[in-house]
């Protein structure tokens, strides 16, 4: 089926939405993005994604082309036009097309390029992998130094995903200076007893919207949260491990670099967190 997508104010068939070869998103990865999930036709944690989008744009000195209400209207229109029950909305804003290539930012009259499209994923929250858990490998983190900005420079994450595929596992965890930063497109955690351990926020990792919600729910469920780095060896020796992202939600990790985490099976804490997250988020979905 041909999707209806959004491009700079127009709702178009996907085959008719065209962006210039001079667009700075294409030439320089000069753009930011967001991915918001849809469950039961409603947007999950939309406010969180809007706040991070505004922050990413502001860190790159780009104007936010829309108010939160306008972004919401566009998201809802796309859900409606494409009949999405479960899936994702991908949003990208680039610095636009200055008509030529130059490293310096173009003048403010260059309009940003705004693209949104839907991804239909029936049963997104009923992923069978949540019952068996992911297996991951560790790879050196050679991404750039401002990973807190959600930019479209996804070449190395893409390479790391392929390294995982070649190793016959589900994903990779990045390691820098001997400690885990995060997954290719998700935040990484370990569980020890009643405690959840995950790296503290800094320029070194993306500030996950799902991370913020899950840590809030964990504290409400009387769990302890410790924000600090951990090594692969500590993760392999932990009781449980998991990742979070807007589209995988809370996903158990049962193996790291060939070593089982805990029993090597999905434990008790992670499925509980997944359930709390999905319950609370479905209740608050808009
Ligand atoms: N880290 C990285 C590197 C990511 O790409 C993502 C997902 N885009 C995340 C963490 C998780 O963020 P969120 O929970 O907002 O999807």
Task: Name the bound molecules.
Answer: 4'-deoxy-4'-aminopyridoxal-5'-phosphate
Mean pLDDT: 97
| CATH-derived topology of the largest domain | D-amino Acid Aminotransferase, Chain A, domain 2
The CATH superfamily name of the largest domain is: D-amino Acid Aminotransferase, subunit A, domain 2
Radius of gyration: 19 Å
Share of residues in strands = 25-35%
Discrete helix count: 8
| CATH class bucket of the largest domain | Alpha Beta
Oligomer: single chain
Please give the domain count.
2
CATH architectural designation of the largest domain = Alpha-Beta Barrel
- Supply the helix-strand structural class: alpha+beta
Helix content: 25-40%
Q: How many distinct beta strands? A: 15
Approximate shape = globular
Order of helices and strands: EEHEEHHEEHEHEEEEHEHEEEH
Poorly predicted ranges (pLDDT <50, ≥5 residues)? none
Termini separation (Å)? 26 Å
């Amino acid at each position: 089926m041909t999707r209806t997508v959004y491009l700079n104010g127009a709702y178009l068939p996907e085959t008719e939405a065209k962006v210039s070869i001079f667009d700075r998103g294409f030439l320089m990865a000069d753009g930011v993005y967001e991915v918001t999930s849809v469950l039961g036709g409603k947007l999950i944690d939309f406010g969180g994604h809007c706040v991070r989008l505004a922050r990413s744009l502001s860190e790159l000195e780009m104007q936010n082309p829309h108010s939160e209400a306008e972004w919401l209207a566009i998201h809802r229109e796309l859900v409606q036009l494409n009949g999405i029950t479960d899936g994702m909305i991908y949003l990208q804003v680039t610095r636009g097309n200055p008509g030529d290539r130059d490293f310096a930012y173009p003048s403010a009259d260059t309009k940003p390029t705004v693209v949104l499209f839907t991804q239909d994923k029936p049963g997104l929250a009923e992923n069978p992998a949540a019952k068996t858990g992911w297996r991951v490998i560790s790879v050196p983190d050679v991404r750039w130094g401002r990973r807190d900005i959600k930019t479209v420079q996804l070449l190395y994450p893409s390479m790391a995903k392929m390294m995982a595929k070649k190793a016959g596992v589900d994903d990779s965890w990045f390691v820098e200076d001997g400690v885990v930063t995060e997954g290719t497109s998700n935040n990484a955690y370990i569980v020890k007893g009643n405690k959840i351990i995950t790296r503290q926020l800094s320029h070194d990792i993306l500030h996950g919207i799902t991370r913020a919600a899950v840590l809030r729910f964990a504290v409400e469920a009387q769990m302890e949260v410790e924000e600090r780095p951990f090594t692969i060896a500590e993760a392999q020796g932990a009781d449980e491990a998991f990742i979070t992202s807007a589209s995988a939600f809370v996903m158990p990790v049962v193996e790291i670099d060939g070593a089982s985490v805990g029993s090597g099976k999905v434990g008790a804490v992670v499925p509980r967190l997944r359930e709390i997250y999905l319950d609370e988020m479905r209740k608050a979905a808009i």
